[in-house]
Each structure stands twice: as C-alpha cells, then as structure tokens.
Specification:
This protein is α/β, with parallel strands linked by helices and about 140 residues long. The protein has three helices and seven strands, in the order βαβαββββαβ.
Length: about 140
Amino acid sequence: MSRVTFYLLQQQSAQAVKQFACRLTDKAWRNGMPVHIHTENDIQCETLDRLLWEWREDSFLPHEILSEKSSGAPITLGFKPPEALHDNTLLINLASSIPDFYRQFIRTCEIVDQSPGPVEILREKFKAYKADGIKPETHRI
C-alpha cells in the first residue's frame, strides 16, 4: 500500500514549497531513493528544474524533465504521468490535484504552505486520500 505524507510548512509562500521540495529531493536521493516530482504544468516544471540546478553549490542532483529522450536520471520532473519508474520511487506532488497514478509509487509527499488557498486544497486532498483507503501522515515543518 502506498504511504502518503503531508508536510505542513509554517511559511506562506509558493517559494517555500519549492525550496522544501528541493530539500526533500536532496535527502531522498542521498538515501538512494529515486524521486519523481509531479508539477501542475510545464512552467512550474521548468522553474523547479532551475531550482534543482541551483540547489546547492557543493552538490549536484542528477535530474531531468521527462520527455521522449529521457535518459533515466534518478530524479525526474513532469506534469504528465511518467511512463517508467525506478523501483521504490518517491512521488512529490506539487499539483493541486492528486494524480491518478500515485499508487504506482512507494510513497507520496504533499507539501503545503499556510496560505488560505493551499490549506483548502490540503483538506480536499486529505479527504480524497482517506476515501481511497489511505491513512495520511502529517508533519509540521
């Protein structure tokens, strides 16, 4: 069964969500876990791609935006369902809805800031996961 974790950030900004996504990606990859970051659209995907390149001066996160020419990097980004996954892949969902394919992943992470809009989306997602038989975990960051 898939595991779902909600990370509740104290900040109220979309930038904080992206920064935490990079931090979570870095930690997962260093622990040997492949990561797929699901974005809302191509603009968010490209923004996150740039952030991952600039994440830390002293390290490199091997990542790529999914395309027909994907090389199989351990960290992928995309706004469409991935065709192939590494074993034990972590899904970081930055889209406003739950992707239909989330059960293909060993774990799904939802990152939410404390702005009114994202909090409402969080509540709807939480209910939807519960209705799908998942008991989400929550962590305040």
